[in-house]
Amino acid sequence: MIRQSLSLLAVTLALTACALNMGRPRPIDLSAVAVRVVPDLEPDALAEALLSADPDVALVTGAVDSAWLDTVAEFTGLTVSGPANVGDGAMAFLGGEPVGDTTIVLTYDGGALTLHDALYRVAEERFLDLLIFRVADAATVRPAIRALVRYMATDVMNSAAVVMAVEVPSSAAGDSVARMLSPAYYDAVRCEPGVAAPAVRAGIRLFYGPDARVYCRSATTETRSVGDWIGADLVLGRR
To answer: Could you tell me the pTM of the whole model?
Structure first.
């Protein structure tokens, strides 16, 4: 009788666990690439690299323009969101068709931050928000990120998973950005807690979060012929 009761309890617990899992949205794999392209790169070179990597989304920055990005999009079959012109270059996303996108200039004491923001629907009531910006001077990291955080608190959908790329002037500046965004957003060069960062620190960094909506399985940081490159195998959903 006791053995039968334990068996019934085990079945009940199993069914309860299944019901809880069924109540959660299914995980969605997301392959993301962030790249800062080298000067004078031909668009077909980046297109070839993207076709080889086959990401769902690419966050691109560098000395490029809208015509250059349109050519990459034509070769890859991806859709351009942007570009946002900044300094001597531009920033943009390549992926699916966004629900909406915008370029905004965030001002702070002593400067301004140009940000491109695009929202994507990845499933019914499941959203991904991509952000990209450039920190040109390490001295402006703190006020720039404070301005960014204020913007995100009011203008980024609070139920969306967020992936953002930041072009940085040095690895030290990238580390400063990572410290200011932590613990809400995680640095893909570390990917998982306790995993040592790769030896190469690129001129672009990739962040994701919050951890209740997106986590990282693996990431690579490289200096390729097309430029500084970070690839991340992300999952939209709770671990």
So the answer is: 0.86
Position with higher pLDDT, 198 vs 136: 136
Structure tokens belonging to residue 54: 């086959």
Phi–psi pair at 150, nearest 5 degrees: -65, -40
DSSP 138: G
CA angle, residues 188, 140, 190, in degrees to nearest 5: 10
Strand order in the sheet with 227-236: 79-86, 89-95, 57-62, 28-37, 227-236, 214-224
Separation between Cα atoms, residue 49 and residue 228, nearest integer Å: 12
Q: Which residues contact 176 (CB under 8 A, 6 or more apart)?
A: 138, 141, 142
141: left (phi over 0), alpha (psi -120 to 50) or beta: alpha
Residue pointed to by tokens 């946002």: 84
Contact 168, 204 (CB under 8 A): yes
Residue 233 to residue 219: CA distance in whole angstroms: 6
